[in-house]
TrEMBL record:
The chain crosses the membrane at residues 6-26. It comes from Bradyrhizobium quebecense. Keywords: Membrane, Transmembrane, Transmembrane helix. This is Uncharacterized protein.
Length: 49
């Protein structure tokens, strides 16, 4: 019986890890594309993404 509980724990941990990696990938892809304008102490920076 304890082996089955350990198996469920490992499977649950893998599901959580896969969910976190999927969410991070989604956030990385969600960042806007196009023109980015940053104003800072060095002046204005314009980047084309």
């Amino acid at each position: 019986m304890p082996n089955r509980n350990v198996l469920y724990l490992v499977i649950g941990a893998l599901v959580v890890i896969a969910g976190m990696l999927g969410y991070n990938l989604y956030q990385a892809k969600k960042q806007p594309e196009g023109l980015q304008i940053n104003v800072g102490p060095d002046g204005v920076k314009i980047q084309n993404k």
